[in-house]
Amino acid sequence: MRLKARQFHFEFPRPALVMGILNVTPDSFFDGGRYLNEEAAIDHGLELVAQGADILDIGGESTRPGSLPVEETEELRRVIPVIEGLARQVAAPISIDTMKPAVARAAVAAGASIINDVGANRAEPEMWQIAAESGAAYVCMHMQGVPKTMQASPFYLDVVMDVARFFQERLLKLERCGVPASQIILDPGIGFGKTLEHNLQLLGNLWQFARFRRPLLIGVSRKSFIGHLAGSETANRLPGGLACACLGTAAGVHVVRVHDVAETVLALRMTEAILSKSKRAE
Q1: CA-CA distance, 250 to 271, in Å (whole number)?
Q2: Tens digit of pLDDT for each residue in 215-237?
Q3: Which residues are marked as active site?
Q4: Is 253 exposed, middle or buried (0-12, 13-18, 19+ CB in 10 A)?
Q5: pLDDT value, residue 35
Q6: Most buried among 46, 101, 114, 121, by the most CB within 10 A?
Q7: Residue 234 confidence (pLDDT)
Q8: What is the value of pTM for the model shown?
Q9: Is the pLDDT of residue 281 over 80?
Q10: Closest CA to 144 of 130, 159, 127
C-alpha cells in the first residue's frame, strides 16, 4: 500500500508514522497558547522532528469540544508563517489541520503536503478539489456534527459500522473529485462526536477498517475520554494515550497523531519489535 503526499511517498507495511501536533492556538485543550508565538511554534516543530516526528501537523483553530470557529484571516495569520518557516528547515512532511479550503490552499502553497480535515463530513467539494489539484495527501476524518456541538448526546446504532459506511461513501466522493486512493488517509475521529463507549468500541475494532486498504490514522493523545476512564487530569493522560497508540499499531494503524512524540516513538518501536517476533507474523 502506498501513500502519496506531493513529493513524499510512503510504502506500507513500515513502522507506524508519528504525527507530531503543533497547535498555534490560544485555546487548544492541552497546549493552547504555548506556541502561539511564531518563533516558539517553529522551535517546537524543530524539537518534535528531533524527537522522531515523521510528520508535523500544524493547526490554527481549536477543535476541542465546544470550541468556536476562528475567522479565516486569523487562522491564516497564525499558521502560514509557521509552515513557511518550518518548510525551509525540515525534511519531514507538513500537515495543515484545518476545515477551511482557503487555509488549506494557502498552506499547500506555503509548503504543506497533507491536508488534515476534521470537517470531511461536509457536502461541498472545494477541499477535495484542492487535494486533487495539489497532490496533497488528505486525511478524511469522521465527525458527528461540528466541534461546538459534537459532544451533545452523540448517538449511533453501531458506531463501527456507521464510521465504516462514512469511509466507503467518502472514498467514492473523493474519487469522483479526482483524489486518487493513494492520497487518502482514513481517521475514525476518536473523541469527535463520540462517547467514552463509542471511543472504546472504535479502538477495539480498528482492524475492521483494514478492508479499505488505506492508511489508518488515530488521534487519541491526551483526550478527555482517557481522563473519564482513568479519573485523571489532562497532565496525567499520557499512559492511557500510549496504551491506545500501541494497541492501535497492533491492530493495523499506520499513523498516530500525538503531543508526546519522544515517548510515543519509543512505545511504538517496542511494540513493533515484539510483534515482529509473534508467531502470527510468520
Answers
A1: 8
A2: 999 999 888 888 877 665 656 78
A3: 223, 257
A4: buried
A5: 66
A6: 114
A7: 59
A8: 0.93
A9: no
A10: 159
| Contact (CB, 8 A) for 113 and 5 | yes
Residue 141: which of 97, 83, 196, 205 has the closest Cα?
Answer: 97
Residue 183's alpha-carbon distances to 137, 190, 204, in angstroms, are: 4, 21, 26
Place of cell 522551535: 43
pLDDT of the residue at 141: 96
What is the arithmetic mean of pLDDT over 60-66?
80
Q: Is the pLDDT of residue 67 over 80?
A: no
The full DSSP string for the chain is -EEEETTEEEESSSSPEEEEEEE--S--TTTTTTT-SHHHHHHHHHHHHHHT-SEEEEESS--STTPPP--HHHHHHHHHHHHHHHHTT--S-EEEE-S-HHHHHHHHHHT--EEEETTTT-S--HHHHHHHHH--EEEEE--SS-TTTTTSS---S-HHHHHHHHHHHHHHHHHHTT--GGGEEEE--TTSS--HHHHHHHHHTGGGGGGG-S-BEEE-TT-HHHHHHHT--GGG-HHHHHHHHHHHHHTT--EEEES-HHHHHHHHHHHHHHHTTSGGG-
Assign 224 to helix, strand or coil: helix
